[in-house]
Design brief:
D-Maltodextrin-Binding Protein, domain 2, 5-stranded mixed β-sheet, 447 residues, disordered N terminus, 3 domains
């Protein structure tokens, strides 16, 4: 069966290569066309339009249907890949560099006066700098905070949250904002919690997923267990956030639909953990009164931050023109536009230390941008384990899914995750030569 799916995948990739080869001349019409593989967020249209206005000899177009990493790599090796493509996090960046299709632009950016690691947010650096070399520039940077619906707080007579709150204080506030009917079914929750953000709680309790060498999973540490337990307890012990089953039921009640953004907009949750990019949708609802506050912290004041970056296809015959787009991402014009759009935060740190960022004249009600700046400033990138990539994280993800579903005790799941993930790391180091060499270099031992 696996071979069948692999064969189908190869055929589809070959067909896509054929389709690219039959496209019209990218330089037709007197302009050089650049293809950018990115998502189809509606704000991209204005970003593309700005670049094209500033570069009248170029025509940038997006390709949102071709974002699969394997397809981009195979097409680029075959000489028919996009000119520009997005990456998400260190693992994605390293995969493109290892495949040989990412163009090293370190010297070219320095020649342009752009020292990438120094001008972007620290949490974004691993997403575009690999082994000390620069391969791209962030399009935006994000870290999460607590959104709160002021109308829900006012309706419940609960004061708005303030910075520096503790988790016990947070839980008591969330309990006051959780309303159930006579049958015990929740009509309103105090919090919408994305269990995928459990890593944030692990980090702020002082835990990590891996040891400094990334050769051992450390989810069995007391600190990591405390973070996973809190994530579980928000749903199953304190009952201030919906379980997966309750979230599904909440989605059937009509209104705006499902998910943290829409639950917050409709008042079905008082608070939600999410990013500034949520404003892309929430600005469309007139009269929505929102506030933002940093998440309560345990031992460390930290959240996970990340970036969406754009790389250049080394095999593109239009590399030089594509480099102009990377420089555009570092420009004042792009960064101001991105901040105005609330497409997360501008990658250029200096663009977020302006009055325009703090007080957008088009949205004077958004008086919380300084909070977003502090959140991203204090964020750190997620850990990277070279021995466990993609599906190889299954020993950890499976255990955390069981916790999320209320099917396994958090402490037992963490211990099983640590044991199974460490065993997978050692197995991969035994079977894959370059990982074996890395393991021995890091530990001085045989895997």
């Amino acid at each position: 069966m696996k071979l069948t799916f692999a064969a189908i995948g190869v055929v589809l990739i070959l067909l896509s290569i054929y389709a690219y080869r039959t496209l019209p001349d990218p330089s037709a019409g007197g302009k050089t066309r650049l293809v950018w593989v990115t998502d189809n967020n509606p704000v991209r249209a204005e970003q593309v339009a700005l670049f094209n206005r500033l570069n009248p000899d170029l025509e940038l177009v997006i390709d949102p249907a071709n974002t699969d990493q394997q397809k981009v790599i195979v097409q680029s090796i075959g000489g028919v890949g996009p000119d520009l493509f997005d990456t998400y996090g260190r693992e994605s960046a390293e995969a493109y560099v290892a495949s040989g299709i990412a163009w090293d632009i370190t010297d070219r950016m320095l020649e342009a006066g752009i020292d990438v690691p120094k001008v972007i947010w620290p949490a974004a650096v691993p997403s575009c700098v690999v082994n000390g070399r620069v391969y791209g520039f962030p399009c935006n940077v994000n870290a999460n905070a607590i959104w709160f619906n002021k109308d829900v707080f006012d309706r419940s007579g609960v004061p708005y949250p303030k910075p520096g709150w503790t988790w016990p204080e947070f839980i008591e506030i969330a309990k006051k904002l959780t309303i159930r009917d006579e049958r015990g079914r929740a009509k309103q929750f105090g919090l919408y919690w994305d269990f995928n953000a459990t890593r944030d709680l692990v980090y702020q309790h002082g835990g990590r997923y891996f040891d400094p060498t990334a050769t051992r999973c450390t989810l069995d540490s007391p600190e990591a267990i405390a973070g996973v337990k809190l994530s579980h307890d928000l749903m199953y012990v304190h009952k201030v956030a919906p379980t997966p089953t309750e979230e599904a039921a909440l989605s059937t009640q009509g209104g705006w639909g499902s998910g943290g953004i829409t639950f917050l907009m409709s008042g079905r949750v008082a608070m939600a953990y999410g990013g500034r990019w949520w404003l892309n949708l929430m600005r469309k609802q007139k009269g929505l009164r929102l506030g933002v506050v940093e998440i309560p912290y345990a031992k460390e004041r930290v959240t996970v931050g990340g970036a969406r970056c754009t790389f250049i296809n080394k095999n593109s015959p239009r590399r030089e023109q594509a480099l102009r787009f990377i420089k555009f991402l570092a420009s004042r014009e792009y960064n101001e536009l991105l901040n105005d759009q609330a497409d997360a935060l501008a990658p250029l740190m200096s663009a977020c230390y302006t009055d325009r960022f703090l007080h957008n004249p088009a949205h004077p009600e958004e008086d919380y941008n300084a909070v977003w700046r502090e959140v991203v400033k204090n964020s750190i990138p997620a850990e990277f384990c070279p021995f466990l990539r993609g599906g190889e994280m299954e020993p950890i993800n499976t255990q955390l899914d069981l916790v999320r579903g209320g099917l396994k005790d958090p402490e037992l799941a963490c211990r099983d995750a640590a044991r199974n993930a460490t065993a997978r790391i050692r197995r991969n180091a035994r079977l894959i030569p370059h990982l074996g060499r890395l393991y021995r270099e890091l530990t001085g031992q045989e895997p």
